[in-house]
Amino acid sequence: SDGSWVYVGGCTAGAARVDCGPPNQPNVDFRSCTDYSFRSVCVAVCATGYTGRPSALCGSDGSWVYDGGCTAGAVNCGPPSQSNFDFSSCTDYRFEGWCSPTCAAGYAGRPFAFCGSDGSWTYGGFCIPMECGSPSQPNVDFSSCTDYSYGGSCSPICATGYIGRPFAVCGSDGSWVYVGGCTAGAARVDCGPPNQPNVDFRSCTDYSFRSVCVAVCATGYTGRPSALCGSDGSW
Q1: Is 91 inside a domain boundary?
Q2: What is the CATH number of the domain that holds 52?
């Protein structure tokens, strides 16, 4: 009423505004937290593949006080499986488990496997069949053989003048395993189609050594013709 202000309350010296900044803790996702002021509470979630109930409180000194945390969760990828990989040395099937298997017998490479957050394995590297290279054996003709990889088999023939039933298979160590072979022997004899005047040999189809052909006479002729294939290739 006298034209002067009447003051109620006032301001005293106090602490400056506290800002803790973005919180940070291993394996915790704080992206939902936006209030970094004094006494603010942040209830976070665990990163993928981890479990827990993490939270944080902004303290008066501008630092976060963390409660709880996140540990590797119950994610389990189970035993890994991949064609031509040998996982017998792998024992850690948990999230982020890392495995360096070997290749199965007969295969070569540098494979690996990683247990992901979704419970499935991620495979990398490769295992490819071992290569045996070109087969070679005395007196054997392998020109018909084309598969030189592990498990590939080949039934070649003997070189001219040799006999036998050779066989080869590419082994797991990258070398050929030979079965049978070829030894010196008579070359295959082929007398070709027989021919004799007034004889009908059309029923004869085997021209090999020692084969016998019983023919018939041409029309208008009589007799009991036959032919034997000799070792010199003539009938």
Answers
A1: yes
A2: 2.10.70.10
Residue corresponding to tokens 């996982």:
87
Closest CA relative to residue 55, chosen from 1, 64, 47, 63: 64
Residue 223: phi, psi to the nearest 5?
A: 150, 180
Cβ(46)–Cβ(52) below 8 Å: yes
Domains of the chain: total: 4
- Whether 79 is in a domain gets the answer no
Q: What is the pTM of this model?
A: 0.45
According to DSSP, residue 44 is labeled -
Q: Which amino acid is at 230?
A: G
Pull the structure tokens for residue 170. 């590419």
Q: Which residues of 201-226 are buried (b: 16+ CB within 10 A; e: fewer)?
A: beebeebebebebebeeeeeeeeebe
Note the pLDDT tens digit of each residue in 8-33.
876 655 557 899 999 999 989 999 99
Tokens (6 digits) for 49: 């593949």
| 48-64 per-position pLDDT tens digit | 777 788 999 999 999 99
Domain that holds residue 92: 85-129
